[in-house]
Amino acid sequence: MDAFLSILPILVLLLALAALKLAAWRAALLAFASGAAIALFWKSLGVRELAEAAAGGVATGLFPIGLVIIAALFTYAVVEQSGAGAVIRNGLASLSADRRYLALLVAWGFGNFMEGMAGFGTAVAIPCAILVGAGFDPLKAVLCCLVANTTPTAFGSVGVPTMVLAHETGLDAARLTKTIALLQITATLLSPFLILFVADGWRGLKEKWLLGVVADFAFLVPWLAVAAFAGCELPDVAGGLCVMLALALAGDRKAIDFRRQAWAWMPFAFVIAALAANAAMPQGRKLSPGILILAAAFAGGLCQRIKPLRLAALLAATARKYALAILTICTVLALAKTMSASGMTSAIAGAIVAATGKGYAAVSGVIGALGGFVTGSGTSSNVLFGSLQVSVATSEPEKFLFAAANIMGAGIGKMLCPQSIVLGCAAAGLSGRESEVMGRAVAYFAIVIAVASAVVVVTR
């Protein structure tokens, strides 16, 4: 009964989205209400503790996550306001008119790069908006970005999820980084081909499989090398850059006005430069990615001759436009914090451990996916379940394996996470169709989590 009631808020969220087809913010509020009631009357969580947990979730949803999301979407709005958006789309079209090529270039290359630099939803929001602006079908654009964003999670936000996992479990960070990279090879290999399938079905796979191979190895080779020899901070950045370079060389490369393109990409270039400089700073001196992205976007807008008052109005309009998306994120995080504080999350995981016994390896990634689904964050999933995963292990190699499985699963779980879906839908102009996107994403989630779980079993 305890495990069933503990998982009930998640079931409410899923049913509200998939069956009742409620707007995401309404579904999230309904799920939080059920979670709060269970925490108060079944788990005996005090009113004060409930309020603190919920407030903590809301605070995290606003800062840093909400700030980063608004800043990222504001950057894209600046580009559109200045007219640079059309220039960027023309530049992409000059590389190739093939939407399958653009899906790999933007979702897999640029998306992985943004995940490595900033995380917090930027790898879904910005690439999705660019794809839609380039004429991509909005629903396919969201799905491409959700699929692409599964495997870079572990080393996203300059390695924060892996560093947190090492801290929570007491495992050596360098060895853990190598274990994560090796464990994720198979799931990572799948991603470009799933993106091609989302973009154009079986025809996309048949006609562009070689491009998928190029995208795969352009990412994997530097990604693995950096993870093995330099640590968890920059594998995604290196891999994403190499994908963009490799695909740019593979494109048609018709006449491109490089000066015009440099002007158009200026806000993004400023964002990249600011985040790169921040990544090089010592841990205690790093600044908020959201603040940096905002400052860089303002600087880029000024260079593109948008007046300061117009930039301020654009920021306010962006915040209003995505207010419900931020509300959804804050509510889901409030639910996650409440479930954690009341012991509901632990009860769910404990029931899974008890039910699987020696077959636990097959579901270790699923537990991580549960954390990624509920919190929308690889870091938060590691805080919730990292220690649990290690405690189940019976040997030192198993500790590293199960810890790595947790973060791998967390990235895969983000594919169905309401926060990620809300963000992608908002960026693509599909607000209100979140349940449709979730329904379409389930099949891709099932494929990747099944493969990932099989790899954990075989590796064990």
Describe what you observe in this structure.
- The protein is mainly α and 460 residues long.
- The chain has one domain (2-459).
- The chain is 82% helix and 0% strand.
- It is built from 22 helices and no strands.
- It has helices at 2-18, 24-41, 47-82, 84-95, 99-117, 122-133, 138-148, 156-169, 173-183, 185-229, 235-250, 258-264, 266-279, 289-303, 308-321, 323-342, 344-356, 361-375, 378-392, 396-413, 418-428, 434-459.
- Helix 2 (24-41) packs parallel to helix 16, helix 8 (156-169) runs parallel beside helix 19 (378-392) and helix 19 runs antiparallel to helix 20.
- The longest helix is centred in the middle third of the chain and has 45 residues, at 185-229.
- It is globular.
